[in-house]
Amino acid sequence: MEDGVAIHKSAIISHNVTIKAPAIISANCFVGSNSYLRGGVFLAPGAKVGISCEVKTSVLLEGCAIAHFNFVGDSIIGHDVNIEAGAILCNHYNEREDDTVYVHVDGQRISTGLHKFGSLVGDGCRIGANAVLSPGTLLMPKTIVRRLELIEQNPL
Prior knowledge:
mainly beta
């Protein structure tokens, strides 16, 4: 560990990657060129972050793969999740006066009490290219989000 960043010796960190503490990059992980990891990031064994991605305050579990040009903010990504290129896992409502993030669980709208909260993505999910998950999105295991789809579970 150096300056709050721990990188396993078998992890591959490509050129021009910025990792800000705290961060843990586990065994057999891959982080592509020009990626930016910040705000507290944990990559479990075998997690992959493609080129030019930003991952902020998030946990990526084993076998998770995030393709190039993605943003994942304040999220937990399950085992064996695949996120295609250009997907955005939003963590903030810029367009709302009340920017508190809510989640829907069993038909109930529950306040997180937070102004920054991304997605909880279940094991085995597939998220298509250029999809957008709005703040507070909960995806059950093996959910498929189509390319260019907007998931908005908390409409105004």
